[in-house]
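Write out a sequence, fold above all:
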Amino acid sequence: MSGAESKHDPLEDFEQRQLTFNGKTKRVFVAGKGPAVIVMSEMPGIYPLVARFARWVRDDGFTVWMPDLFGRAGAPITLTYGLGSMIGGCISRRMPRTCSRAFVATMRRGSRRTPRKSPVVRSASAAARAGSSLPMRTAT
């Protein structure tokens, strides 16, 4: 990385909200006006390039909802930070359970059962349902 991507982004142009989904309170960064777009970050979390993408979406006339699910929001990626975030996410069971041996064995048996959703997927689904109740702008 070079330039701004290698520096901490304080995300000062985003409003920080505390939202509760499925009994868990998460910090969500919100910015813009217009239809809602949920920007989901991969591990290690909201790093400067993710924030830059969210700003592009905001500047195109949307309201960005960016949940803080992993790592330290705004922190630049380093090898140590990235690995630590990924290991922490796996240990805390935020990762989907679809990689487990039980799921693989179930799929080999031909079961039609749906695997349980991870906490991240449940939170994102709840956020999407909440966002769908916001007023929508229609194209003219």
Remarks:
- The beta strands are 15-21, 24-31, 36-38, 63-67.
- Residues 3-131 form one domain.
- The first helix runs from residue 48 to 59.
